[in-house]
Amino acid sequence: MSVNYDQKQAYQEKVKAQLDKLNAQIDELKAKANQAKADAAVEYHSKLEEIYTKRDAAQAKLKELQNTSEQAWSEMQAGFEKAWNELNTAFESAVAKFK
After folding, report:
1. Which residues, 6+ apart, have CB-to-CB distance to 48 below 8 Å?
2. Among 54, 58, 72, 77, which is least packed by CB within 10 angstroms?
3. DSSP for the chain?
4. What is the pTM of this model?
5. Residues 6+ away with beta carbon under 8 Å from 87
6. What angle do CA 56, 61, 62 make, to 5 degrees?
7. How far is 73 from 46, CA to CA, in rounded Å?
8. In the prediction, which pLDDT does 2 show?
9. How far apart are CA 39 and CA 77, in angstroms?
10. Is-contact 11 76, C-beta < 8 A?
11. Where are the domains positioned within the chain?
12. pLDDT, tens digit, for every residue of 25-51?
């Protein structure tokens, strides 16, 4: 699959916007964790650590994606999508647990 520069740029901008939105949601969850009672706070912080790890992995994949050649684009895009899905799943799980 051949990907031109504009397609690559548009995808990267979309992904960055998604990460920025998720970072804002993570900050919201962190604020709730800080307000929780002691026993719940431990669980909140544990979930947040998991989310931070997955977020950092997704951000690293995005950096790799930004620096990849067109030939490697599809493979890198698939790697990012996997990291993004893991991050999103962890976040949704944490949100559901603490509603």
Report:
1. 26, 29, 30, 33, 94
2. 72
3. ----HHHHHHHHHHHHHHHHHHHHHHHHHHHHHHHS-HHHHHHHHHHHHHHHHHHHHHHHHHHHHHT--TTTHHHHHHHHHHHHHHHHHHHHHHHHHT-
4. 0.62
5. 22, 51, 54, 55, 57, 58
6. 95
7. 34
8. 63
9. 39
10. no
11. 5-97
12. 989 888 887 777 777 778 888 888 999
pLDDT at 1 over 70: no
Query: What whole-number percentage of the chain has pLDDT above 90?
Result: 12
Cα angle 80-54-45, degrees, rounded to a multiple of 5: 165
- Tokens representing 64 are 């790799």
Token pair recorded at residue 27 = 């900050």
- Residues, the chain: 99
